[in-house]
Amino acid sequence: MWMALWCLYWWDNRFDDLFELINWMSNLHFELQRLQNEIEEEVNKYNQMDKKLQQFIQTRTSLYEQESENTLVLNEIEILPEDSKIFKQVGGVLIDQTKKEVKTTLSNRVALIKNQIEHTNDLLKKNDQEQKNMAEKIQKAKERYYEMAQQLQPNWSDYSPKLLYPFIHIP
Q1: d(CA 10, CA 29)
Q2: Partner of 84 for a Cys bridge, out of 74, 80, 88, 169, CB 3.0 to 4.6 A?
Q3: CA-CA distance, 87 to 93, in Å (whole number)?
Q4: CA angle 164, 166, 169 (to 5 degrees)
Q5: How many other CB atoms are found less than 10 A from the CB of residue 46?
Q6: What global pTM score does this model have?
Q7: What is the SS3 assignment for 82?
Q8: Count of beta carbons in the 10 Å neighbourhood of residue 170
Q9: What angle (nearest 5°) sits at the alpha carbon of residue 25, between those of residues 20 and 31?
Q10: Count of CB atoms situated within 10 Å of the CB of 79
């Protein structure tokens, strides 16, 4: 009788351990799933930031071209004599302007473009830093994911061959 009670106690404890193991593995699986979703969200954010970065680069390139054009025109205006007739096209109409007016307008435009370039460069630096931080965050999340996934893998070295293959004779 005591042997039957002992066997029942032994099996009961084994089932408790088994249920605890199953519960642990289930929780770990849900945690892995949550971590995988988090990684996917972060990668999507990273890709959106990369698209923004490309837009900033295009904007900066366009601004450099505008600055170059306006500076070139300003330099050409400097060469002209003071009494030259300068025309500005507005829509389909040519408007007469003085050299002084044109120089002032172009100088202001060049200064404005330079300010926009500085602002765009600041945005590029900020976005670049955010992207680096996001990449580090993704890398850390991936490392956590792989560590947790390793916990689900059995370590076969913990088991003796006799336990793994009880019906095969191993000398």
Answers
A1: 28
A2: 80
A3: 10
A4: 115
A5: 15
A6: 0.65
A7: coil
A8: 9
A9: 125
A10: 7
Mean pLDDT of 72-99: 88
Taking only the tens place, the pLDDT of each residue in 7-65 is 444 555 555 665 666 677 777 778 888 888 888 998 899 999 899 999 999 999 999 99
Token readout for 46 is 């990273």
- In order of 2, 9, 13, 17, 18, the CA distances from 5 in angstroms are 5, 6, 12, 18, 20
Which amino acid appears at position 122 of this protein?
D
Distance between CA atoms of residues 107 and 120, nearest Å:
20
CA dist 57 and 128 (Å) reads: 11
**Helices 2-79 and 99-152 sit at what angle, rounded to 10 degrees?**
170
- Tokens for 59, please give them: 């904007």
Compute φ and ψ for 20, nearest 5 degrees.
-65, -40
Q: Which residues contact 61 (CB under 8 A, 6 or more apart)?
A: none
* Identity at 40, one-letter amino acid code: E
Q: How many residues would you count in the chain?
A: 171
Residue from 33, 32, 23, 20 nearest 149 by CA = 32
